[in-house]
Each structure stands twice: as C-alpha cells, then as structure tokens.
Design brief:
The chain is 48% helix and 18% strand. The chain is built from 9 helices and 15 strands. The chain has a 6-stranded antiparallel beta sheet with strand order 4-5-1-8-7-6. Strands 10-12-13-15-14 form a 5-stranded mixed beta sheet.
Amino acid sequence: MRLTTRIALVMGLAMPLLVLGSGALLLRLVTRDVHAEQDAHLRERAAVLLPMARGLLRTEDSGQPRKAANRERQLLDAGLDVGVRLLTAGGGSAVAGNDGGTAVVPGRNATTGDGRQEYRVVAAAGPQPAATAPLPVAAPDPVTVRARGHAWRALSVEVGGANARKGPRGTLWVFSRGAAGSAEITAVQHRILVVALIAAPLAGLLSWAIAERATRPLRRLQRRAGGLDPGTSAARLDHAPSRITEVDDLARTLQTVLSRYDEQAARTQEALATARAFSATASHELRTPLMGMQTNLDVLTDHPDLDPADRADVLDDLRSGQQRLMATLIALRALAQGDLVEADAFGVVDLSELVAAAVADVERHVARHHPGVRLTLRLTPGLHLSAWEPGLRMAVDNLLRNAVVHGSRAGLPARIEVALRPGGRPADPMAVLTVDDDGPGIAPEERHQVFQRFHRRAGSPGSGLGLTLVAQQVALHRGTVRILDRPAGTGVRFEVHLPRPGDPAADTRTLELPLHRTWLSEVPGEGPHELPTRA
C-alpha cells in the first residue's frame, strides 16, 4: 500500500474520531448549560412560591378550610410550567395515577427516599414524579430524580410557619421535566454526527493530496535509485537538495551505501583477479621445477642400477626442486594475503621487538646452514607503529634472507649489519630500518628491477618473490624502500622508512589502505605497482 494511501486512510479515520471526541465535549457543555438554565428557572419559581406555601400552611393551621382552599389554588396556579408539591409531617394514603405510577393527591401521604419518614401532601399539581418515586431528604441544590424511565430536575425549599419554632413546617418541592432542553441537545448530537460523516471523506482526500505532494521528492529519489545498474553504467545517484530533511538524509545514506558497494565490488573483483592470478602464476612458475622433478624420477625408474654417485646427484636435484616448489608456493600465498588484507588486521606493533626476533631466528638458521655468516644488530628500543604484524615480519625476514644468500663474495662468508633507528622530521617521525651486506652489490640501473616478481639472478636458489614481498608490505604500510651503496666498502644497503606516529593507537593514516592492490595479479615481467622508492 502506498504511503499516501496510508496517510489518507489514517486521517480519514482519525478526523471523525476527533470530531466525535470534540462533539462529546461540546455536548457535555451544552447539557450543563441546559441544566443550568433549567435550574435557574426552578429557583426562580421556588422564590415566587415560597411565600404562598408559607401562607397556605398558616391558614391550614388556623382551621379555615375555605381560605386554605383559596390559598392552595393560588399556590398551584402560580406554579405555571413547573410541578409543585407541598409536604408537611403527617399520614394518609396514595392512589394510583394515570402515568403508571402513583398519583400525588392532596391530603394523602408520601415518603422520603430513605423510606423512614412519612409526609402529608398539602398541595400538589403540575408535572412531577409519582408519589412512590424516592425523593432525597432535602435538595437545596437541584438534583436529578429518575422514576419509571423518566428524569426530573427537583429542588426543595424548607417552609416555616408564622412562629419558626411552634408554627407549622413543611417542604416545598418544585419539579421540572428532565426532557426540557432535550431538543437542543438532540440537535447538537445530530449535527456532530453529520460533521463527522462529512469530515471523514474530506479529511481523507485532503490528506491524500497533501501527502502526494509531500512525497513527490521521495518518489523522484526512488526513480533515480531504481534506475541505477552498476553492471551496465558507472552513473551514480545524483540528488539535488529538496529542503526536506528526511529525504535529503535518505539520499545521503543511499549515496554512502552505493559508494561502499562500489568499493566492495572493486575489492571482490580484485579478489577474483588475485585468485585467478594465483592459479595462473603458480602453474607458470611451477611447471619448470615439476618437469625437472619428473625427469629425475624417470631417470631413477628407468635406471635402477644407476651409479651411486649419479643417483646421489639426481636425489639432490629432486630435493632442490622440492624446496624451490615450497618456497614459491609460500611466497605466492604471502603475496595473496597482502593483496587481500583489510584495515581491521592492523594494530600497534613494537617494531624494535619484531626486528630483534627476526634477527634471532635468522641467526639460528645460518648457524645450521650457513656457518660463518655474521649478523650484527643495532636498534633503538620502543619504536611503535600501526602495522599488520605478520606482513611486516615477512618483509623483515625476506630482507635478512636476501642478505644471507646474496650478501657475500666468492669464498667469503656474508657480513650483515642490521640497524633500526628513529628518523624523519618532528612533525613526520619515521622508523628507519637498514640492512647492509658486503656482497657484490647491485648496479643502479638494475635496482628497480629486483622488486619485480620472479626476478632472479642466474643460479639463485630463491623464488624471485622475496623482494617483491618486501616492496608490497612497505607500500601497504605507507612507507618507502630504496637500494643504496653500502657506506663503507663494497656491498649494498636496503633502507626502509615507515611512518611512526606519536600515538600509534590513534593513527589512521596506515589504516587507509590502497584500494587497488595487484601485486599478485600483474602480468609476470611487467612488475607490480610503481614502487614507493626513493632515488
């Protein structure tokens, strides 16, 4: 159901209810006004009748029946349109009346509402309830008396004789039909119902027209949003301010959602490209070692009586091929992880502890496999930064392993110096990591190529991905890496600069990761992104 229809229906129902509620209040006020007017008339009549009622009681007490009859006639005639009943203490009887109740007859008895005291009716005439209708003991203020489905407004006045203490006493009751003014009240009721019936459709139509106009910007926004198709067009939601807060807020929310969708779609495409590239690159790079291993296995199978020395050479080739396979697969997996890592994987890392742990691991490795290699470490403790710790550790490990493998001259063990120190300007502090070796060095024109995937020197046992991992992780951490000549003697220096904010927990710069990361999916030989290196 449309919003405009809902609003029209709600208003079409709410308006009659509001009219009826207001009408009920108005009816109550009108009824009170009618009763007030009726009560004022009763008081006016009672004030006129009171002296006559007092005179009638005095005359009856004096034993003058003719004069009493005249005064009774005067009293009843003065009642005009109200009922009059004059009671005094006494006894008698009542007879059935023509209104279905018991008629009030002068000289007969009547009772009060509690039924405990009888009064004698001295005079009675005009519209009034039956004699059996219970009356209150006194009603100095008008009250409603109900009898046999009829309502009466009743007012009582105490009547004293010539002598307030010894003279005759009685009660003068004045009655008025409760139906007085009912015509006005009924007319008001009818008018309220008519207004409610008219207000329902008018309120619905008016509300529908207002809601239709008010929701027009919302419908325009719906049409624009519904016409967007990210698969066929790069167009995005274009919204001009409508000066309606809710619509403008909704448009901004939609724009934010669509922008996040675009980012996630791009990341998904990159993830798919990374998966495809992983498969293609793995098959391309693993084909040669697998074929070599297959050849060696064929040799072993076809020549079971192979010379032991030749057999040992073949087995060494198999072992070397298997190690190369494992190294390539591990490096490819690490590149894929770097391409897909998200900002929530970053946290505060103590770079000093990380470098010290990496150097200790490499020392244990070279002690078993490269005896004679010497590592020295100089670092400043307590250098913290916001980083992805596994990726940063991979970068440091690969720098150290590269120095161990390529950082020595023929016949001499490698001498590797590792240093970590603070650097940069006070407004832009850095952590500077340097790895020096005394190997043959790298020609300046070749230094950029070493970061490309699968770039290897002739005879290198590595996968050609170690320094690519270094470049990837440095770029991911908004740092720079460059290759320099060793300051003293021959060899080469790898120098890495990483941002080191004053408060790493509050740093957001390294959390704004590059949206486009294709270190793994680039075509082999073309190289990855433009490296953030320094000249």
